[in-house]
């Protein structure tokens, strides 16, 4: 199969697991059956917002949902049947180092749900822990090879956390490092991962402040004949102004096809619902409106 994906893609992401159960419900460790049901129901509110957005005119072919098996198995099956582009995570939640959620059974779980995209979240700084980087690259190559051998698409969320030395070199200014230095390190990380045989079809890219850096990153993901590889903008849980800016920087750049945004869309409405300050229908309505607004921003409307 040819590497890449060339259609518009607007993913509403709610595959958060460990952080979700802790921050919304105060649950640490393995949740019991009652806690699991509450967490799953909260995720269904997010999904109801996505379904409402379809009813309000968002095209199903471009609309994606990213949801986990642990708390959203029923949602995943419903989303696929409803025509969403379904994405599901492969990684264990809350770990610094990428590893498979279901160990040797990862392939069986993917085939069971048949998502459009299998997603990984990876923290990878080329100036960080070299041994960890090598271990991660080996697992990621194995996953990518398996996906492509089985005609499946690989969605790769790249996070580049700064090292203490990098922040010090930026004068202790993390915002300056984030804007000026992180895109350079993202480029090197992508090149290093490609060199290790890791070949995503779509890269989820942290928000970038300058359009020329979006162009640089997109060109890097497409180098060496990878002409069909795409990028989507990651929301990073930021406020609307920041996310709007990142969307505008990526929009129209060759290779950029949309976004994958989660907390920035659903955090406030869902918090209101969980706390009892917002009804279910109103929460879903607000989630749908936030999702549609980001689609409009990306498309310059």
Q: How do the helices and strands line up, and which of them pair or pack?
A:
Layout: E1 9-13, H1 18-25, H2 33-55, E2 63-66, H3 69-82, E3 85-89, H4 106-113, E4 117-123, H5 130-149, E5 153-159, H6 164-169, H7 174-195, E6 202-206, H8 211-221, E7 230-234, H9 240-250, E8 256-261, H10 263-274, H11 280-298
Parallel strand pairs: 1-2, 1-8, 2-3, 3-4, 4-5, 5-6, 6-7, 7-8
Helix pairs in contact: 2-3, 2-11, 7-8, 10-11
Can you describe this structure?
With 301 residues, this protein is of the alpha/beta class. The chain has a single domain, classed as Aldolase class I (TIM Barrel). Helices cover 51% and strands 15% of the residues. It has eleven helices and eight strands. The protein has helices at 18-25, 33-55, 69-82, 106-113, 130-149, 164-169, 174-195, 211-221, 240-250, 263-274, 280-298; strands spanning 9-13, 63-66, 85-89, 117-123, 153-159, 202-206, 230-234, 256-261. It has an eight-stranded parallel barrel with strand order 1-2-3-4-5-6-7-8, surrounded by six helices. Strand 4 (117-123), helix 5 (130-149) and strand 5 form a beta-alpha-beta unit. The two termini are 35 Å apart.
